[in-house]
Design goal:
Layout lengths: L4 E5 L2 E5 L3 H18 L5 E4 L5 H12 L10 E4 L1 E3 L9 H13 L15 H19 L8 E4 L15 H5 L5 E5 L6 E5 L1 H6 L2 E6 L5 H8 L6 H8 L3 E5 L15
Parallel strand pairs: 2-10, 3-4, 3-6, 6-9, 9-10
Antiparallel strand pairs: 1-2, 5-8, 7-8
């Protein structure tokens, strides 16, 4: 595995990498290892973001060596722009071109938020899609197995933005439509309750411009969406190429 430095907090476990390339390779290697060793992994929610292209390529290069590949997984999205599925801004389009097509992932394994609809209709269709999946999965609760999330420089995750915090914290639907502060503004996002209920959440964060808000969140300071999610969960896993020197492990943490 790419070299990484472990860090630990009360409700998170973090890994610091030396560069964006090492970050993408390290997360991909850990994901492929999880796929290989966890027979219960079935649902994965993907995200967009600057590191995603490199991450998808690294996953493809490693997944081809897996005996079962990724053909037993069901893919969802943490958020999506309200654009057609073939639009350059679509998170689905990026995954289709860089992950699904290279690995011959069947369309029946992908559950995108339908593009080209009005935001409210997209959200309604998304809720129905998730409800049907959870009902058919037999797990007995509405929970995804693994969610990949990035983070913006303002601390937003999925399409949960700081300026919408009060409204977002009051929502208990599986997903809903929002108006974001960055283009394109109309989006669909998974809710705090659904993200909090996920079996595993992996935050993949690249860029020193995000370091300050990330450190605040890990110290349980500020009011950012990433801080809100971390404090809601018993355990969140963080992968980053920013410095986390202040969160050094002690010998006791390593046991």
């Amino acid at each position: 595995m790419s070299s990484m430095i472990p860090r630990k907090g009360p409700s998170w476990l973090g890994y610091e990498f030396k560069s964006p390339d090492e970050l993408a390779a390290g997360v991909a290697e850990r994901f492929v290892s999880l796929v290989k060793n966890d027979d219960h992994l079935r649902s994965v929610a993907l995200s967009g973001g600057r590191i995603t292209e490199a991450l998808f390529r690294e996953i493809v290069s490693r997944s081809q060596a897996l005996e079962k590949g990724l053909h037993h997984l069901n893919f969802f999205w943490a958020d999506e722009r309200c654009v057609p599925l073939d639009d350059p801004a679509s998170n689905y389009r990026l995954a289709r071109e860089l992950l699904f097509e290279p690995l011959a992932i069947a369309p029946s394994q992908t559950f995108p938020f339908a593009g080209g609809e009005t935001p409210s209709r997209m959200a309604e269709m998304g809720r129905g899609m998730l409800e049907r999946y959870f009902a058919a999965s037999g797990v007995g609760r509405e929970s995804l197995d693994l969610v990949f999330l990035g983070m913006g420089e303002d601390g937003h995750i999925a399409s949960l933005f700081p300026e919408n915090r009060a409204s977002d914290l009051s929502r208990d639907e599986l997903c809903y439509d929002v108006v974001a502060s960055k283009p394109p503004p109309n989006r669909i996002t998974l809710s705090y309750p659904l993200l909090s209920a996920a079996k595993e959440v992996w935050l993949v964060i690249s860029g020193e411009g995000k370091a300050a808000v990330l450190r605040e969140a890990l110290r349980s300071e500020g009011g950012s969406p990433i801080k809100e999610l971390i404090t809601r969960r018993e355990q969140t896993t963080l992968f980053t190429d920013t410095s986390l020197d202040e969160f050094k492990l002690t010998d006791g943490d390593l046991s």
